[in-house]
Amino acid sequence: MRRLIARDDQERGATAVFVAVMMVVLLGAGAMAVDVGQIYAERAQLQNAADAGALAVAQQCHRTPAACSANALVWAKELTGGNSNDGATDIESVKVDLANSQVTVVTSTRSGSNAFLTKMFASALNAPPVTVGAHATASMAPPTGGSSFPLAISNNCYNLSTADTTGQVQKISYKPGGTCTGPSGTEIPGGWGWLDQDSPCVAITELGSNQVGSDPGNNPPSGCSEILKGWADTITGGGEVHVAFPVFDDATNKGQNGSFHIIGYATFKIWGWKFGNNHEYEFRNTKNDPGMTADLACANGNDRCLIGQFIKFESIDSWTGAGGGTGANLGTADIKLIK
Questions:
Q1: Do residues 57 and 76 touch, judged by C-beta distance below 8 A?
Q2: Tens-place pLDDT, residues 139-176
Q3: Is 338 within a domain?
Q4: Long-range contacts made by residues 89-98, C-beta under 8 angstroms, separation at least 24?
Q5: Structural domain of residue 312, as residue ranges?
Q6: Higher pLDDT, 309 or 36
Q7: How many separate domains does the chain show?
Q8: Considering the entire predicted model, what is its pTM?
Q9: 188 and 103 housed in the same domain
């Protein structure tokens, strides 16, 4: 009997050691599970902050490149904290590469005693606080392709001051007696720069491609009535209409066989137009309309013109298309995340 009791005491001692060891293992596993989840959640917040900061800096750098280097960090900070749920985000660095039209923002957990990840479960096992980071790179390059109103504009019409955010107000007129068709050979004889439509009042173009003029006469493209009404309603209501047009440097052939060589895209703030006669096809195109002058007026029956000004413009991740090469910098930038 004494031998049995002695063996029982030894087994109970071994069980206590086993339980103690397993408690440490289970505590470590639980701490790892909770802490890893916390780390992933923090990194997701930091990535949101880095993405927002990179897009904001790229947008501002396109608008005011001269002020970019000096203010990039300030611009990034304005959005990184607000796009992290805990508001605890540090910016490790902001790298601006204007030569390649890119901005990179690197974020991390805020350092100090109040850091988000200092109170880790693994600290019970003497594990140190964890610092998590993320980075994002945004580009601000000219678009290479996309969908647009089916009208191509000659590069000889383009006038955007490099010092100002807006260009001079001008009338782009093609027929009759075109005022902005460029040198001989850059316009389609007998027509304007209308493009083939891929859907009602929409043409899909790509950099470097040749698009065939679909309507060499004076009639506007079909299916544009509702779009033009929307433009008129927006302007009448005090808003602005910004439209990105494909810009060509050369055109070949005649009429419906004509084609345009696209070099880039320019955004036009529209004041008025005359794409046809009456109704929505002409809007604020006479000298007595608001903001108009006799030089800008486009009222004669066969006149076809667009009135307004080219502006610098940034759109965020809204362009499609994969045209080859790099488009001419015509003041319009496609801001998007690339890393």
A1: yes
A2: 888 888 888 899 888 887 777 765 565 678 888 876 54
A3: no
A4: 89/45, 89/46, 89/49, 91/53, 92/133, 94/53, 94/57, 96/57, 96/61, 96/68, 96/69, 96/72, 98/61, 98/65, 98/68
A5: 145-333
A6: 309
A7: 2
A8: 0.74
A9: no
